[in-house]
Queue: 2 jobs
Job 1
Amino acid sequence: MATEPLAVNGGQPTVAGDFPAWPIYDQNEADALLEVLNSGKWGSTHGDVVATFENEFATHQQTKYASALSNGTLALAAALSAGGVGIGDEVIVPPYTFIATAAAALFVGAVPVFADVLPHNHLLDPEAVKAAITERTKAVIPVHLAGAVADMDAFAAIGREHDLLIIEDGAQATGAAWRGTPVGGLGDIGTFSFQSSKNLTAGEGGAVTSNDEELAQALYSAINVGRVRGGGWYEHQRVGYNLRLTEFQAAVLRVQLSRLDAQQKQRDEAANLLAELLEPIEGVEVDATDERQTAHGRHLFLMRFSAFGGDAAVRDAAVKALSAEGVTGVSGGYVPLHRNEPLVRDAKAIADKLGQPYATPDCPVTDAVSKDSIWLTQPLMLGTTEQVGQIASAISKVVANVDSLR
Ligand SMILES: *Cc1c(COP(=O)(O)O)cnc(C)c1O
């Protein structure tokens, strides 16, 4: 194989030009923000921009109900609380995800229990979930990591069979669909994030979706200090946080939402082309696509590299090498949550106080993928077709020179 020296070793960078800066915005966001400013109605208790966005988001996700809130972390906590999950209940989560998925269980006094992911797509393994179910299990949170949809046929069936609440963590999957149905309506509750890096963003923000009226009411209440729709201002039917989104954020989100589908199409075309270009390169394994997934959210482009021989130090060097080639916005990914000390300590503390057993399970697949995975972040999928080709060339070059990274 031709081995041009890596940019990190003094060679020429492979990628020409910058990728689009994220977020993308124009005068429409400025106008929408000014309109809210001048209305003097800055909060959703007075204005109607949040409510309008909620309707538009529900329409986009094809769910009956959507409520906006402050972020994706507390969306998960609100979902658990609204679903009746509380002290000592067990919540099954993957260990290869953002920390919020597991931390949310602790926020409601519940115990996160880890079940391993699948080796070919980094997503929660239904068989591992089945093995982790106990009499204390109340909920499962499949994460649609990267924008790929977890096996919702299997998780819906597990939910029915064991009477468990299924919460879809769709923080990375706005726009993804399974058998034609968008995420957020495939389980009992869906949660979303509009934090800065996400494909739909207002800097911060989140949403919860459901098709169940009772759950939707409970979600509204969990976000609005225990108030109920149509109830009195000082009528609190449950204990709830104030998790409301501002009218300013909703104004930005409405404009961003109007661009989302076109951006998703562009990311999808780039990702499909990149997968095709990487196919012949030995030592790179692009995440497999489930044929039941009818749309990918394209938040991240995930790959594993057998070329690294399971050595995380080589992977970390490859991330640096790819950045030097001009592939900015590349990452070595998550540190496994079942090895996160504060999470495991707090989970054990709750279980111990209640006299419940708690054992940190083995999650060998998570351990393996956390050593040999590399992610490309979503703005890389908004570059030119030429740049997609250059990303593939950069990856090929790094793999060809892998020995120089050891
Ligand atoms: C971003 C993210 C969250 C948390 O969302 P925030 O809005 O940052 O609190 C939760 N889960 C996953 C998988 C995420 O990527």
Note: The pocket of pyridoxal-5'-phosphate is lined by residues 71-73, 97-98, 100-101, 143, 169, 171-172, 193, 195, 206 (CB under 6 Å).
Job 2
Amino acid sequence: MIVQIEGNVKFPITLDPTVWIFDDRKKTFSEIFEGEENETDHLEEDELKRRSTRFDREVYQQKINPPVNKSINRYEKQRILKGTFLMPLKPFLHTSEPLKDVKKATLVTHEGEEIVDADVLAESLLHFSEDGKPLQEQGPVHLYFKDGSNRSNPIKGIKKIVLQ
Ligand SMILES: Nc1nc2c(c(=O)[nH]1)N[C@H]1C(S)=C(S)[C@@H](COP(=O)(O)O)O[C@H]1N2
Ligand SMILES: [Mo]
């Protein structure tokens, strides 16, 4: 369940998408592709309370175990259990310090390899969570281009991102 960033970088790194669910940089699919604002921003306190009560009841009834820790508020738990989440790749690429002449990247997947422009890669998003769980189908991540052009056909089953 990990993804390597390697190749023409100063610091090869290992991504662990299972911890991103706690990361505030994550975005929902709707925020990225449907121009929706952050879902939590505009809710009144009452609505937040109502939702979290309902959430607790549902969790209790369905005996689901939310994969979140106690420091996360109830509303965030509910959001996590219902949402489709993506993480911008850029901060992680940045950490790996790609060399200046990097122009392309090879995405090594379970099915084969795909080559993308480094510029396009830097703006891409990694889908990593669905309904509070890691991806069941061809995980651990699916790659979406920022312009939405592969929205109905993301690159799935990525094991390695090799910069060239
Ligand atoms: N409106 C909307 N469309 C969406 C999503 C979403 O969360 N909202 N998720 C996308 C993602 S990340 C994937 S992998 C596919 C899943 O499609 P499926 O449920 O048909 O397998 O739908 C895509 N389309
Ligand atoms: Mo996806």
Note: Residues 3-35+82-163 form a domain with the Sulfite Oxidase; Chain A, domain 2 fold (CATH 3.90.420.10).
